Amino acid sequence: MTPLILGLAGPVLSDEERAFFADVDPAGFILFRRNIEDAAQLRALTDALRAVSGRADVPILIDQEGGRVARMQPPVWPAFPRAEVFDRLYDVAPASAIEAAKANAQAIATMLHEAGINVNCLPLLDVRQPDAHDIIGDRALGAEPLRVAALGRAVLEGMQAAGVVGVVKHIPGHGRAMADSHVELPVVTASAEELESDLAPFIALNGAPMGMTAHVVYTAWDAQECASLSARVIGDVIRGRIGFDGLLMSDDLGMHALSGDFGERAAGVLAAGCDIALHCSGDMAEMRAVAGAVGAIADDARARLDRAMATVAGRGPDIAFADLVAKRDALLAYA
């Protein structure tokens, strides 16, 4: 197995992709809107990915947050609310907000499980900051760290209950970034003391099964490298101060916050301490470059992967989707 999570080009595995994935044996796969047409097609695609990997529990990831980040969309699948609505409800009814966030996450996971998807890149634990770039914005669960942690825990628990692993992101915190890391490299100049509030939700949920790094430079910790490429940030902050010992993947290697060729990017995030390099575009030339730059997955990374997937072994939806949505909507009405 190689320490890669890879995308694919379209809604059906090509012969070239099938042969490449069988040879490279990536740790997992990630899906985007280009891979999704309808329910039958999507289930056939995830079945094909399981077959080519030879693992019934191979991680198949998606970003199904709700709001503006949703790969499975109407009219085939329902829309889900953005995270901000749970923050709003928390203002007036904290316990109801937590229950609503859990029901919503469990509904999302119920839908994903039916499609054969077992990992969702959610929750965001980024603490929203005034005047920051809106790449996080209404995707955040709030501006108060303990609230973000409480709602984030509900999201993790709701998804796990329906058989889907959650990924906390963007560790150690993207909320202060004044730029979109998809487009350029954000540099955060806050002090280590100020950054403690950004770390707080990740510390509270440091037992999460999976996490995703931020392509953000934090000058208080490492003025040269973004977190995904910084052995200091990963070792001292993510693994040390936060105490996170779950499976750690980079954010997408294709984002413009990173420089260098794709092989250098993949080797760089692994050398810094990420367990897995994430490559999303499905471009075959890029994937070949990434695969050529990495060796076999490290023993500790494989152990973390196995532990993460074991958290949902034998689990699946046990509450009807419609009932979960009705519960969520009744609670959100309080806001």
UniProtKB/TrEMBL annotation:
Keywords, A to Z?
Answer: Glycosidase, Hydrolase
Recorded hits in PROSITE patterns, A to Z, give: GLYCOSYL_HYDROL_F3
A matching Pfam family? Glyco_hydro_3
Domain Glycoside hydrolase family 3 N-terminal as annotated: residue spans = 14-309
Q: Which reaction does it catalyse?
A: Hydrolysis of terminal non-reducing N-acetyl-D-hexosamine residues in N-acetyl-beta-D-hexosaminides
**Alphabetized GO MF terms:** beta-N-acetylhexosaminidase activity
Assigned EC number? 3.2.1.52
Gene Ontology biological process terms, A to Z: carbohydrate metabolic process; peptidoglycan turnover
Family per similarity comment: Belongs to the glycosyl hydrolase 3 family.
Q: What is this protein called?
A: beta-N-acetylhexosaminidase
Organism of derivation:
Edaphosphingomonas fennica
